[in-house]
Each structure stands twice: as C-alpha cells, then as structure tokens.
C-alpha cells in the first residue's frame, strides 16, 4: 500500500495509506458521522465531487453486497477512514470494500487521523484538497493542481442525472403515476414509492414541462443530488412552469431548487450536514425526528414567508431550515433524506404526505 497525502490550500497535510488507488485529483472534503452504511454513501450521487471522511473508525468489516447500493456507480472521489478492515463478514457480502473501490479506480485511504481531519474541516469548512500519492513537494503539487472548488458554482446534478427517461419497477397495483426529476435520485426513494403503489418514471434534469404535463402524472418529485443548487437552472425553470398544476415535492437538492424557484435564496454551509443521526424538529407534529442528511447548502429563512411558504422542519444542531411547504400543501420539500438510506425511518411520513397531496389533486 502506497503513502497518500491530503493537501489543503494553507499547506496543511494529512497523511494516509491507500488501500485502493485513484488518479491525483482535487476534491472537496466533508465528514460523515454515520456509524454504518458506507456502501450507501459510496453510491449516493449527492457525493459527486467530494471526498468523504468517515468519523466512525472501523470501515469495511461487513464488505459489499448486491442489495444496498443507492445507484449503479460510485460517485464520490475518495473514501477516507481511520481503520480499514479487509476481512469482511456478512451473509450477503460478495466482495471486499477494497475490491469494490478498485473496480472504479476510486481512492480508499486508511490510517488517517480522522479525528484531527474532522476538527480541521469543522474549523475551516469543507474545502478542496489535493489527493495524491506523489512524492513531489507540497509547493510543486499545489502549483500543478489549483485548489478550485469542485462543488460551488458547478451544475453537478446534470453530471449524475440519467441520460434518458426510464421507468422503475412496476408496483403490484398502480395507484399513482409519478414523474421523478433525477438530480441524483437514490434507489431507496424509488423503492419506497413503488411499494406504496406509485409507478415512477424517471427523467433527466433537462426534461421539459410539456413532457410531464402531457404524461398523465399525479405528482412530481424532485430528487436529491449533489452540489450547488443555483446552477441547476433547468430544474428551477421546470418547477416554475409546473407549480399550481401538479403536486411538487422535493428532497435535499430538490428542496433547495423548490426554494430558488419561488425566489427564496440558498447559501453554502460551513461544513454541511452528512450522516444518519441529525435531529430535526417537525414543527407541524411538534416531534423530534432523527434524520439522514447529506448536503452542503441550505435555504435562507429570509423570504420564506414572503413567498407564501412556511417552515415545517428545523435542524436542531444549527437551527437551519430543514423543510418548507406552501399554504395548501401541494408543494413541500425537506432538506434531509426521508427514505433513510442509510438511517432511521422517522421521516418516511413525508412520502405519505406526497401521496395524500396526489389524492387531493385527483379528487379536484
């Protein structure tokens, strides 16, 4: 295993050892506080352009299986851990984490002081770093790889979105037809909707309003996805064209895009929310829910009321907006991942609200 360095713009260097190698590159580093679910993290399109530091120390002990992927590809740039375990044990496992990363030439880095690295990110924010196994000097490496953000100002949703429309698995009984705008959709979202009678057609972010309006759909779901919401102008325009005509619900990036479509601003968080243990106050139910989250941007509370929306959820770690709705509930969005892949299922009621909104629309 070769030595690897993570190099930041202030020339701070973190050392590690590669158990899977990739190309020398720049990626924004974030930390994830989940204690399990590294396969779901690897395959979550919301991590495109990022290297993920797992705060839980032992990673790899249950291997990789064929059931838990959130998409068909690895989307992050690097997985950074304290202790990689190559000898796995799980009845569903088919290969090691090392073998899985190697098939896509994605960095797997171990023996990193992840506590110190997490504290560094908390202090200075999620920012780009060079990931390299080169023995060149720090100055030489930084001169050939400028530390430009891999996330801010980038339309990453277009990179991970499907290239053509397709239909997900057929439910036993079709009760509703749903158009999914794929900004980086996770299979857990599609599976939950399918299990509750929704036939899901998935569309790329370039889908036009006419395609959806002529598709005999009962509702629209704007999915999670990576990066900065502001450059995803095609979906913002789509939401503006569809509002008032169909129920529109959004998750994570979809939440931010719904806000922007209604004139509510977004902003970049210092180090984001990444993990499966984030407490959120459900204002409508006056209940605390533990949620799975993965995002680096948030919705600005200023302008929510003026746009005709109200706050439905608040993040209890930092009081950021975690959910909004319009007056009649036909448009709702949440900053977390209600499908919980991985994570607790406290918030799956969001999908039930979506189904109820479609029922109301059918009656009308």
| Rg from alpha-carbon coordinates | 20 Å
Shape-level CATH architecture of the largest domain: 3-Layer(aba) Sandwich
Unreliable residue stretches = none
Q: Residue share in helices?
A: 10-25%
Fold and architecture overview:
- With 364 residues, this protein is α/β, with parallel strands linked by helices.
- The chain is built from 10 helices and 21 strands.
- The strands form 4 sheets. The protein has a 10-stranded mixed sheet, sandwiched between helices. The protein has a 7-stranded mixed beta barrel with strand order 1-2-10-7-4-3-11.
- Helix 1 (38-43) links the parallel strand 3 (25-32) and strand 4.
- The protein is globular.
- The chain starts with a strand and ends with a helix.
Sum this structure up briefly.
The chain has 364 residues and is an alpha/beta fold. The protein contains ten helices and 21 strands. The protein is 23% helix and 32% strand.
Explain the layout of strands and helices.
Layout: E1 3-7, E2 13-20, E3 25-32, H1 38-43, E4 50-54, E5 58-59, E6 64-65, E7 78-80, E8 83-84, E9 93-95, H2 97-103, E10 107-110, H3 114-124, E11 128-132, H4 138-144, H5 156-160, E12 166-167, E13 176-181, H6 187-195, E14 198-203, H7 209-213, E15 219-222, H8 233-242, E16 248-251, H9 253-261, E17 266-282, E18 287-299, E19 309-315, E20 321-326, E21 331-334, H10 349-363
Parallel strand pairs: 3-4, 4-7, 5-8, 7-10, 13-14, 13-15, 15-16, 16-21
Antiparallel strand pairs: 1-2, 1-11, 2-10, 3-11, 6-9, 12-14, 17-18, 17-19, 19-20, 20-21
Helix pairs in contact: 8-9
Key words describing this protein structure:
364 residues, alpha/beta, Glucose Oxidase, domain 1, Rossmann fold, 2 domains, 10 helices, 23% helix, globular
């Amino acid at each position: 295993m070769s030595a690897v360095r993570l190099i930041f713009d202030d020339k701070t260097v973190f050392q590690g050892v590669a158990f899977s190698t990739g190309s020398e590159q720049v990626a924004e580093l974030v930390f994830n506080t989940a204690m399990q679910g590294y396969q779901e993290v690897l395959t979550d399109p919301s991590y495109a352009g990022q290297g993920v530091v797992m705060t839980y120390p032992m990673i790899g002990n249950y291997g990789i299986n064929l059931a838990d992927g959130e998409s068909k590809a690895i989307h992050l740039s690097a997985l950074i851990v304290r202790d990689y375990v190559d000898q796995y044990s799980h009845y569903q496992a088919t290969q090691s984490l090392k073998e899985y990363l190697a098939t896509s030439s994605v960095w797997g880095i171990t023996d990193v002081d992840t506590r110190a690295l997490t504290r560094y990110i908390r202090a200075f924010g999620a920012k780009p770093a060079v990931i390299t196994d080169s023995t060149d000097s720090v100055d030489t490496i930084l001169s050939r790889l400028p530390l430009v953000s891999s996330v801010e100002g980038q339309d990453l949703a277009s990179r991970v979105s499907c290239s053509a429309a397709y239909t997900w698995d057929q439910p036993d009984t079709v009760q509703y037809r749903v158009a999914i705008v794929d900004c980086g959709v996770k299979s857990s979202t599609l599976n939950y909707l399918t299990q509750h009678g929704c036939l899901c057609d998935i569309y790329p972010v370039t889908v036009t309003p006419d395609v959806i309006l002529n598709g005999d759909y009962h509702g629209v779901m704007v999915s999670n996805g990576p990066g900065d919401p502001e450059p995803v102008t095609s979906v913002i325009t789509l939401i503006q064209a569809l509002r008032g005509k169909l129920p529109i619900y959004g998750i994570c990036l979809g939440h931010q895009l719904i806000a922007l479509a209604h004139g509510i601003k977004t902003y970049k968080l210092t180090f984001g929310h990444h993990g499966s243990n984030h407490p959120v106050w459900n204002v409508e139910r006056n209940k605390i829910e533990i949620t799975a989250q993965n995002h680096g941007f948030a919705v600005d509370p200023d302008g929510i009321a003026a746009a005709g929306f109200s706050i439905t959820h608040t993040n209890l770690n930092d009081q950021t907006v975690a959910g909004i709705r319009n007056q009649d509930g036909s448009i709702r969005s949440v900053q977390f991942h209600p499908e919980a892949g991985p994570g607790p299922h406290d918030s799956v009621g969001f999908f039930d609200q979506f189904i109820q909104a479609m029922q109301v629309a059918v009656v009308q």
